[in-house]
Design goal:
The chain has five helices and no strands. The radius of gyration is 27 Å and the shape is elongated. The protein is mostly helical and 112 residues long. It has a domain at 86-112.
């Protein structure tokens, strides 16, 4: 193999790798790679090495707040939706009624 052939071969490898890059710099694996990862994870799951993550709902988006402008826009859109969308209004009333009939919320309501 000549040096020119080797350089062309290396350039072709780089092109193949760069074709799988995403806009944000990520990497799209090939079909073979996805299948290999899937197979290995399935084997690990069967052996009990991989378990489903338990996400604590109290920590989701903790410390995140919206700007005043965003809060105002959300508030306006919800007020408009409550005023104009009958299905939405009835659905939300039913959800509130169902939530407030459980024992814990009833105790909080009675305490206040």
């Amino acid at each position: 193999m000549t040096e020119a052939q080797w350089e062309e071969q290396e350039a072709a490898k780089k092109r193949r790798k760069s074709d799988r890059r995403t806009e944000k710099g990520g990497y799209t694996p090939t079909k073979e790679t996805r299948e290999k990862i899937s197979r290995i994870l399935k084997e690990k799951h069967a052996r009990g090495e991989v378990k489903k993550r338990v996400i604590d709902p109290s920590r989701v988006r903790k410390g995140f707040t919206q700007s005043e402008e965003t809060r105002r826009k959300i508030s306006e859109s919800l007020r408009k939706r409550w005023a104009t969308d009958d299905d939405y209004r009835e659905n939300m009333k039913e959800k509130a009624k169902a939530a407030n009939t459980r024992e814990e919320p009833r105790l909080k309501i009675s305490e206040s």
